[in-house]
Write a structure and sequence with these properties.
single chain, about 425 residues, 4-stranded mixed β-sheet, about 30% helix
């Protein structure tokens, strides 16, 4: 069997003035560009199988955006829709794509759809013979913290690297680490890929290889940069661009060391699988109560524009609008997918998954080389653990999560079943 690889990337930096995603405290649009955002497509396949893995420097790609992108791709090339995976690096210094704290630009969404579809098509058309694959792991425990339990909460410090060598001698590195891309806080108004961008930049400088980054299940994992105060661990306004370089270079040099020592092996098998799972929606208060709360929060914000009133307004507004959309849906259907190459398996999960689910999947996986990627193919909020619901906190409340208690455990059970199908 002859296997092929293709890669392409394109700039997706929005116009200056575009609102940035991820923080309620921002009051206006972006003021400049610190570093450009990209979308990167990695093609893997053979004569009878086509797989495309895309990573984009945005907060998250929801189902509607995925459908728009896939529609363009299907009109141009014959790649099965289910074999296209669209992931996000989850930078909080990229453009708003859904109206959570500010409205998305419809014009930019159209351009983004065409850009992402374009790199998929280009990666497919520029494919070359795949000669070998290598796998390596590094560790960067010092750079991350569990933000819900800073002193003893679980983290996943592993840096996974899969490198693909093509017949022309070029090498594409698939980089994976598990941490929120929030080195920069709400006080930053410059467009940036945050630490994932710096990670790829420094890795490419260290190795001479091309790279793409996929984030793990980092819903409750934050950067632990030099200015981080564990007593105020959610406060990311301490982050600087020097910290971005600090974290990115640490990850890159650790990853580069291990990947340099790794052995390339001939590709014997390449497989792809996907499935869906229904997760129960959280119980939502009656619409009339939510509308009343929304109007009251709006009135308070108009009277006094404070950060607290702004936050309460966004939560009340989103609770009401989301409830209107979910009123007739008792279940949320989510997509999971995975590919295996030789003895390596990579799983893709939707939205913001707690790290405990990732650790469980890796522990129970029949593959010792198991990667878990989140923020893939849909974005709808947090997927906590049962334990977290009991503890409360930001990530466990509607509308920040729309899933009922136990949904995360059901998701990881289905994920393991999918992985085991490769054996």
């Amino acid at each position: 069997m002859t296997y092929q690889i293709g890669f392409y990337k394109d700039v997706i930096t929005p116009p200056i003035g575009t609102y940035l995603a991820g923080y309620a405290a921002r009051t206006h649009g972006s003021e400049g560009i610190h570093d450009h955002l990209y979308t990167r497509a990695l093609y893997l396949g053979s004569d009878d199988q086509h797989i495309v893995l895309v990573s984009s420097d945005v907060l998250g790609i929801d189902r509607n955006l995925r459908e728009d992108i896939v529609k363009i791709v299907k009109s141009r090339v014959d790649i099965p829709e289910e074999n296209i995976v669209l992931s996000a690096t989850h930078t909080h210094s990229g453009p708003v794509l859904r109206g959570y704290f500010s409205e998305a630009s419809k014009e930019y969404l159209k351009i983004l759809s065409r850009k992402v579809a374009g790199v998929i098509i280009a990666a497919y058309k520029n494919r070359k013979k795949l000669l070998g694959v290598s796998y390596s792991e590094g560790y960067a425990r010092e750079t991350i913290v569990n933000r819900r339990d800073p002193y003893k909460g679980p983290v996943d410090p592993r840096i996974h690297v899969i490198e693909f060598k093509s017949e022309d001698g070029s090498i594409i590195a698939f980089l994976n680490f598990t941490c929120h891309a929030v080195v920069l806080g709400s006080n930053n108004y410059l467009i940036s890929a945050d630490y994932p961008g710096a990670f790829m930049k420094w890795y490419e400088k260290a190795t001479g290889h091309t790279s793409t980054f996929f984030n793990g299940a980092c819903a409750n994992i934050n950067p632990y940069t030099p200015g981080t105060d564990l007593e105020k661990v959610y406060d990311r306004n301490v982050g600087t661009f020097d910290d971005v370089e600090w974290m990115g270079s640490i990850l890159a040099f650790e990853a580069a060391k291990h990947s340099r020592l790794a052995e390339y092996k001939k590709v014997e098998t390449l497989k792809f699988k996907s499935c869906t799972e229904k997760l129960r929606r959280i119980d939502i208060p009656p619409l009339d109560i939510l509308e009343e709360r929304f109007q009251e929060a709006k009135r308070k914000l108009e009277e006094n524009d404070t950060l607290e009133n702004r936050w309460n307004y966004y939560m009340a507004r989103n609770s009401y609008l989301l409830a209107k959309r979910l009123a007739r849906r008792k279940f949320i259907t989510v997509r999971l997918s995975a590919f295996s190459i030789n003895d390596i398996v990579t799983l893709f999960l939707p939205s913001e998954v707690f790290v405990e689910h990732q650790l469980y999947i890796k522990e129970k996986s029949p593959f010792s080389k198991t990667l878990v990627i989140a923020y893939s193919d849909d974005y709808f909020g947090y997927i906590p653990t049962k334990k977290a619901y009991g503890e409360g906190g930001y990530e466990t409340r509607y509308p920040v999560t729309i899933l009922s208690k136990g949904s995360g455990e059901k998701l990881r059970k289905r994920a393991l079943k999918l992985i085991k199908e490769f054996k």
